Amino acid sequence: MRKMHSTWKSVAAAEITVDYPQDKEVVTSPDYTFRIEAREASRVEISIDSNDWQACRQAEGYWWYDWSGYMSGQHQATTRIQPQNDGQKSTSRTCRFSVDLSNEDL
Predict the structure, then answer these.
(1) What superfamily does domain 10-95 belong to in CATH?
(2) What is the pTM of this model?
């Protein structure tokens, strides 16, 4: 039996990148907007902490995802794109960051 290959592949950071939060950044706000750079993408999705893929919105030359309702602790985000030319889908390197909401009640 022939093995089927996934249509998703890892790509160089230049094709799709989570700009913010940056790797190892500490988020201190109860609401956060991810910024993703994905050139020539017709669709961008994000998965936070290996949860379901969520659609991102495009504006100002970037892709964005508004995130809220999260807890303090370690988190990770991975993004994926569908190229405009219906080429092979690609995923980003996983961005690892933390959230510290301990000062929110002050």
Answers:
(1) Immunoglobulins (2.60.40.10)
(2) 0.77
